[in-house]
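From the shared-data thread, chain only:
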Amino acid sequence: MKLKSVLLGACSALVLAGMASAETLTIATVNNGDMIRMQGLTSEFTTANPDIQVEWVTLEENVLRERVTTDIATKGGQYDIMTIGTYEVPIWAKQGWLVALDNLGADYDVDDLLPAIRSGLTGEDGKLYAAPFYGESSFIMYRKDLMEKAGLTMPDAPTWEFVADAARKMTDRANDINGICLRGKAGWGENMAFLTATSNAFGARWFDEKWQPQFDQPEWKNTLDFYVKLMNDAGPQGASSNGFNENLALFQQGKCGMWIDATVAASFVTNPKDSTVADKVGFALAPDTGLGKRGNWLWAWNLAIPAGSQKTASAEKFISWATSKAYAELVASKEGWANVPPGTRTSLYENAEYQKAAPFAKMTLDSINAADPKSPTVKPVPYVGVQFVAIPEFQGLGTTVGQLFSAALAGQMSVDDALAQAQEVSVREMTRGGYIK
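Structure, as tokens:
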């Protein structure tokens, strides 16, 4: 009896010791659908790795960016894994703020990552500093039934002129249908992601070759005038408050004729569980104006480990799990192939089951491959980035300009005033940063 008690006590002590030694990973992420799904599948990881626990901090996009930037710049150490974008990775890697992902495992297959996505996550030393959870470009999602009702046929590669005409014809205010839903919420990764990509198609650029801001040029005037007029004529009320998630909800509720946004949204708008128009959605490339550039961006939400983390091995194990081929198969087994995180791996686009389940697969891949971060504009520029400028100052500057353009959309200031103030603040910031004398 005594021996049994001793053995039970020893076993209890071992269990308690195991629990005590379990590491808790704190992961900061964005409140997008694919990340919410990942959180729901976390038990699959923790069951296989009982020595690791996971705690999620889920934030709205602008808030996430602000929190993780502050934390990593101040070495706050709040997070073991951060969800960051293509913009941050090369800048933060250069600063020595990220851990190189050298131990993702023998079966991870780094070479399977799409070259366009992988190149943006690779440091100057050739190492991977973040792993892509999903990758995206942007394209047009449209209601085939409303397009037909308007007597129009959407081309695979439309012009902005066609899109604007179609949006106005599809608008039906009496039935709460907006011809087009576009981002208006202020933020460098919210409205400015859309507007910067759009401005590329209109021949605009943030800076000339000498880093002189270009908001006083006619190309930006044409871009912002076009956008504000189109949204006033065919957009939803309160559009200046709408970002990705708000427009997704509107489209799924049948309140948008067209939506130009992230390709990752395709699985959500075609999912009959969430979308009232799932069987009526078509896809087309982002529009152009005939100048040689389309208004589509290139982005990935990635998982990265901040430098100085005391839990690097566990964090890398989680990142490997969440961005692996096996994770894609796990999602497919539970949610169907159409809901697998897109835009990161060549093998996914070669998968016959995925091609069959995802009518948007080819258009997504074509859009990703069409974006050129190293030559994003019609006229030459000194920067890299399609919907952002890959310099540290852009995060603050892009948000300030985004607030001005959002105010113009809301009718709180004129387009001319918004552009004049954007030019003024950009000159000031670029002078302060030493880019222009």
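DSSP finds 19 helices and nine strands in the chain.
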